[in-house]
Design goal:
The chain is α/β, with parallel strands linked by helices and about 675 residues long. It has a domain of about 250 residues: Rossmann fold (3-Layer(aba) Sandwich), CATH 3.40.50. About 50% of the residues lie in helices and about 10% in strands. A six-stranded parallel beta sheet has the order 13-11-10-9-14-15, sandwiched between helices. A hairpin with a 7-residue loop joins β1 and β2. α7 packs antiparallel against α9. The radius of gyration is 28 Å and the shape is globular. The relative contact order is 0.12.
Amino acid sequence: MVVFLGWIFIWIMAPTNTYKQQWKPWLQAKTSSTFGTQGASLLVYTFPMLFIAVLGCVYVHIAKKANGFSMESSYSKKHEISIWKRLVLVRGPLGIVSVTEMAFLIMFIVLLVWSFSVYLQNGFAQITQKSAAEKGVKVWEMKLGSAGVRLGLIGKICLAFLFFPVARASSVLPLLGLTSERCIKYHIWLGHLAMTLFTAHGLCLIIKWALTGQLSKMLEWKKNGISNVAGEVALVVGLLMWIAAIPRIRRKAFELFFYTHYLYILFIVFFIFHVGMFHACTVLPGFYLFLVDRFLRFLQSRLRVRLVSARVLPCQTVELNFSKNHGLTYSPTSIMFINVPSISKLQWHPFTITSNSNLEPKMLSVVIKGAGTWSQKLYQMLSTPSAIDHLNVSVEGPYGPASTNYLRYDTIVMVSGGSGITPFISIIRELMHLTSTFKYKIPKVILICAFKKSSYLSMLDLILPISGTPYDISNMQLQIKAYITREEEHELKSQIHTQQIWFKPKATDASISAILGPNNWLWLCAIISSSFIIFLIIIFIITRYIIFPRDHNSHKMFSQPLSSLLNMLAICVSIAMAASAAVLWNNKHNHKEAKQIQELEGSSIDERDKELESLPYQSIVQATKVHYGVRPDLKRLLFEFKGSRVGVYVSGPKKMKQEVATICSSDLAENLYFESFSFNW
């Protein structure tokens, strides 16, 4: 926290004359001969956040290891629910926003306003009638150009935070109790702010050049200094991503949005060419952590995983069951990205993991609803009479919360719509494990699920695990209230039985495992620290023995674009070296464990079928009450629940989330705590 506050303090001081005239020259004088023009920025902007990420890895590792030891104490206490989780906004462009989120958003806006006002004041102070006359322009035209430059500097602040929310395996988010899917909205907010400021930055300068007859400046690519062409390319690429991310376009043409977003690579490359490494290093930490995460995901996605079986439900839904490494553990509501090359080699789709690593030590399951083009093709492929006996699948993940504590509540209410029930399956299985392992009383659990047709009731069968020791839920205080909105009565004859498919995995298929093994956070710590050290060594060699002999700190002889290119290559090489070494080391151990799993999975299909038949489905039937032809009256249902702490989770359509959030934020719902928990991307 101390280091982070110091990092924020640097951003606050950056626009002031104290920083520009005193601190910055002193820092550059101490570092430029060793690390070039970017030395000062590496020291005060990049290093602090990477230091926090490294310490965060160690902290999360210790917390994860200590979780089993402290399970009794942590689950035996009812933690007070903070007022900071209360909701302040339910509807609007920002979505559902808590008090904490609003407080940080306001502070960030204040930082932007402060920085812009100070930059503008200092810039305008240097513009006089005399200085304008010397350049042959009017005072207001100079001020327009100065304001445009300052807008670009403010946009850089947004860019500095932009990549932190999308680094899925970063340790920075778990330190704050966040997950990547929950932080996507922050990435969206920052993206809108950044592109608004960068667009205004470009327009101001182009208008100034047009008014002063200097449009030729748009074609400038300087050897040293700001390269306008590179900035224009970055702006055009950013605008393409921004337009494709408009909600209406994203919903109707998701593939366009998906593929267009890969242009972020060009955006970052030309942004660095535009501003040089000194300014680029101010926004480097978030992008550096994202690159580490992205390269690890790339290495994991090269493997083909072992798909053991699938359950095809009558509601155009399939459950995929993968073999997993025994050392792989994950929290409830974790997600995993899946790629099926026979459908699309480039598309990766996130799905909630419904299995529990404690109940099912050898199996990992995800549920996929046939809603979009990709998922419908998968469903058709598996539901045809001549079903395939093997399917090539690659995965990334799992990703999820570092820890959970559902026992802080007296009652847990889960509200779902359609396939939104899948995250709650993982929570119920976790509580199922806790009630059979620990003696403490778990909360009362109420699942309110709304489906269009009665065929969707088959999704309730997924609550019970397909493998592992059969667990009876009769000891749980579980109530399921199912609402069939588009059917008046239940026709038992129309129900279709679940179809079970068993696959024949290839010898090359691997069990799903953590890319960095069970001690993944320590390995990530090693990758971040060692790669940054390698990067500094490479930059030291380039600066000391290539750039410095020609430049002697004049920064005028050596080409700035070439220097930027060398720095970008150094970053990529250092990350690739450190991450590849760590992954290769862990792969040796994973292969040994994979052989053991193969031997354990030698049981026959007949035995598995018997196990399925022995599962206590009767408990699910007894706990379920079905209502036909009506929608759930959520306001009445939620207000019925008594108790000092009622945790409310919701997963489903946007309107359902807003309705539940509105109920929980009303004055009459003092005991209802809406968990700001996102189950989708």
